[in-house]
């Protein structure tokens, strides 16, 4: 078996990482999606990487963008996760269904998020069927203390993806 034939599925089954809603605006088009492949990747300088599926509408909009907004949802925000994870921007204007405002650079910021940040896209990374967007934070809104737990993978694993697999 070659390394490209190996599947991480069994390993990934034990993981229960955070999920995020990533939003973007480029030109006159907005998009957003639920992502599970994202993480802080540097402390100094602060950097965060978001991996977007090449099949996703958000990916296509993000290719023309300078910034992305990354949102943390509380576990009680399942309808918001279902909208951004189970619908595609190719068919639905998700922003007509949610409260949002433009960030300092114009990125759509969801007002119902627990916490969020906007990051300038520093570079893009090839990751196979996903592309990584390395972000340098430009605007941050941290959560108030004592809020509910953040949404995790097991909270959204039953959502059918809005874009083709």
Give an overview of the whole structure:
The protein has one domain (17-155): Roll (Pnp Oxidase, Chain A), CATH 2.30.110.10. The chain has helices at 9-12, 57-62, 78-86, 153-156, and strands at residues 20-26, 29-35, 38-42, 47-53, 67-72, 100-102, 108-110, 115-127, 130-141. It is mainly beta and 165 residues long. The mean pLDDT is 90. The protein is globular. The chain contains 4 helices and 9 strands. It starts with 8 loop residues before the first helix and ends in a 9-residue tail after the last helix. Helix content is 14%, strand content 38%. The strands form 2 sheets. It has a 7-stranded antiparallel β-sheet. Residues 12-160 form the Flavin reductase like domain. This is Flavin reductase (DIM6/NTAB) family NADH-FMN oxidoreductase RutF.
CATH architecture classification name:
Roll
String of helices and strands: HEEEEHEHEEEEH
Distance between the termini: 24 Å
What is the approximate shape? globular
Strand order of the largest sheet: 2-1-5-8-9-4-3
CATH structural fold name: Pnp Oxidase, Chain A
Short descriptors:
about 160 residues, mainly beta, Pnp Oxidase, Chain A, seven-stranded antiparallel sheet, two-stranded antiparallel ribbon, 4 helices, 9 strands, about 15% helix, about 40% strand, Split_barrel_FMN-bd, NADH-dep_flavin_reductase
How would you concisely characterize the structure shown here?
This protein is mostly beta strands.
